[in-house]
């Protein structure tokens, strides 16, 4: 599969019209942009704890209506392999990030994140940062 799975931090920049993420999304075919169910959960949680609950609850719905949301699926072995690699090096990375990385690795997608530090620790996971970048 060719494309990009966007981390929650990148979607937040998109919805805030910051960092040029909207430009990257506009020039990338819609069938090459993905979100994880984990991201939908994270954005929904964030919306419920914001000052503009209703407005922010529309954001995950917009993703679901426009892009492909990848279900949690056949990534468990990838998750375990990635987590073991990270832990063996003495690092800690959140489980949600590892699940997104495992999904990307399983499907051959590139993770788009502003959190390159964590995703670059994951073996077999390609990542790029679209925030304030011309990188694609």
Name a few traits of the molecule.
single chain, 136 residues, alpha/beta, Rossmann fold, five-stranded parallel sheet, 5 strands
Strand order of the largest sheet: 3-2-1-4-5
Secondary-structure arrangement, i.e. CATH architecture: 3-Layer(aba) Sandwich
Could you please say which CATH topology applies here? Rossmann fold
Number of strands: 5
The helix-strand sequence is EHHEHHEHHEHE
Q: Please compute the radius of gyration using only Cα atoms.
A: 14 Å
CATH top level assignment: Alpha Beta
Number of helices: 7
How is the quaternary structure best described? single chain
Q: Which stretches are low in confidence, meaning pLDDT under 50 for 5 or more residues running? A: none
Number of domains: 1
Tell me the β content: 5-15%
CATH superfamily: 5'-nuclease
Main beta sheet: strand number and arrangement? 5 strands, parallel
Query: What is the molecular shape?
Result: globular
Q: Overview of this structure, please?
A:
The protein has 136 residues and is of the alpha/beta class. The chain has a single domain (4-128), classed as Rossmann fold (3-Layer(aba) Sandwich). The protein has seven helices and five strands. A five-stranded parallel sheet has the order 3-2-1-4-5, with helices on both faces. The chain is globular, with a radius of gyration of 14 Å. The mean pLDDT is 92.
């Amino acid at each position: 599969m060719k494309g990009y799975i966007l981390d929650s931090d990148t979607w937040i920049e998109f919805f805030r019209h910051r960092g040029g993420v909207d430009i990257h999304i506009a020039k990338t075919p819609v069938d090459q942009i993905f979100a994880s169910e984990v991201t939908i959960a994270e954005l929904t949680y964030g919306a419920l704890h914001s000052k503009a609950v209703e407005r922010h609850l529309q954001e995950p719905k917009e993703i679901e209506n426009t892009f492909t949301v990848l279900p949690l699926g056949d990534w468990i072995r990838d998750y375990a392999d990635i987590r073991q690699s990270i832990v063996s090096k003495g690092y800690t990375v959140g489980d949600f990030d590892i699940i997104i990385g495992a999904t990307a690795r399983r499907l051959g997608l590139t993770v788009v994140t502003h959190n390159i530090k964590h995703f670059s620790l994951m073996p077999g996971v390609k990542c790029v940062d679209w925030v304030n970048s011309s990188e694609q």
